[in-house]
Design goal:
Blueprint (H helix, E strand, L loop, with lengths): L1 E5 L5 H13 L4 E4 L14 H11 L4 E4 L2 E2 L5 H14 L6 E4 L6 H4 L8 H18 L5 E4 L4 E5 L12 E7 L6 H8 L3 E6 L8 H14 L7 E6 L5 H14 L3 E4 L9 H9 L7
Parallel strand pairs: 1-2, 1-11, 2-3, 4-5, 5-8, 8-9, 9-10, 10-11
Antiparallel strand pairs: 6-7
Helix pairs in contact: 1-2, 1-9, 2-3, 3-5, 7-8
Length: 280
């Protein structure tokens, strides 16, 4: 099990300091988030600028965002920014991606944005297809559902040949959404969510999800099962919780605090300095 920490609140400077503290206190990853004008959630910042700054002051931890709202980005700009951070960090970037939420006024306050779920899913697939083509280092053109781009070339491939992509996948034990889950299997991992629920996925849900993914994967390959969580601060209890998730198949615990009434930059700093639990 690896442990990541989300910088959910704070100034850009506070995000960078939080990431530095995360590395110093044994966390495996630092994640910012991607939104524009989210009302009660407070200030939002450019995730790529934050991650570029974090890349410059850390050496070990994985970097990303929980999650990149991919359909809101132009694919060629997203690809260039991701490649830049990949090289700045020595290949430590990962790309958790989703369709975005309509509380994000970068969708709903901008004329011409496609906001239907089907269209956002198609835009997500376009961006991921474009992204993969851009990693060749060779000239290419792209013709997707909504995205049509003439010849482009990016300066060189990612440090490790590709940047890991973790799409959001929705789990429902009664009605597994096959198309959504199959998307994750084309890539490198899944950010697991429970359908129509804000609850964290527990060991039973994780085990059932892992079983479905294993049954439908076309080939064996490294694959991350990424789950959000909130540690209690009780080291023994937290180690037990993490062990149960790991035994069920989760490979990442992402410490995530989103309540703007109780979470501040100061409480995040206090939590990150406690470090993650470790289990045998």
């Amino acid at each position: 099990m690896k442990y990541g920490f989300v910088g959910s609140f704070g100034t850009p400077t506070q995000h960078v300091e939080l990431a530095r503290e995360a590395e110093a206190h044994g966390w495996d990853g630092f994640f910012t988030w991607d939104a524009i004008s989210m009302g009660p959630f407070g200030p939002t910042w450019d995730p790529f600028a934050v991650l570029a700054s974090v890349a410059a002051v850390t050496e070990r931890i994985t970097l990303g965002a929980m999650v990149f709202a991919a359909p809101r980005h132009r694919p060629w700009e997203f690809a260039q920014r991701a490649l830049t951070i990949d090289h700045l960090s020595g290949g430590r970037l990962v790309l958790p991606v989703g369709v975005g939420v309509l509380d994000d006024q970068g969708y709903t306050s901008v004329d011409g944005q496609l906001t239907g779920l089907k269209e956002r899913a198609e835009l997500l697939d376009d961006l991921l297809g474009f992204l993969e083509r851009s990693w060749s280092g060779e000239p290419f053109a792209f013709d997707g559902t909504h995205t049509h781009v003439g010849e482009m070339v990016f300066p060189e491939p990612p440090v490790n040949g590709r940047i890991p992509v973790w799409p959001v996948g929705v789990w429902d034990v009664e009605r597994p959404p096959a198309k959504n889950l199959q998307r994750t299997l084309r890539w490198d991992g899944i950010v697991a969510q429970i359908r129509s629920s804000m609850d964290e996925p527990g060991p039973a849900e994780i085990a059932a999800l892992r079983q479905w993914l294993s049954a439908h994967a076309e080939a064996e390959k490294p694959f991350e099962i990424v789950t959000p969580g909130q540690l209690s601060g009780d080291r023994e209890q937290d180690a037990d919780l993490a062990r149960a998730r790991a035994d069920a198949g989760a490979t990442w615990w992402i410490e995530s605090w989103w309540d703007p009434e109780t979470t501040t930059p100061e409480t995040l700093l206090e939590k990150v300095r406690q470090g993650p639990p470790r289990h045998g």
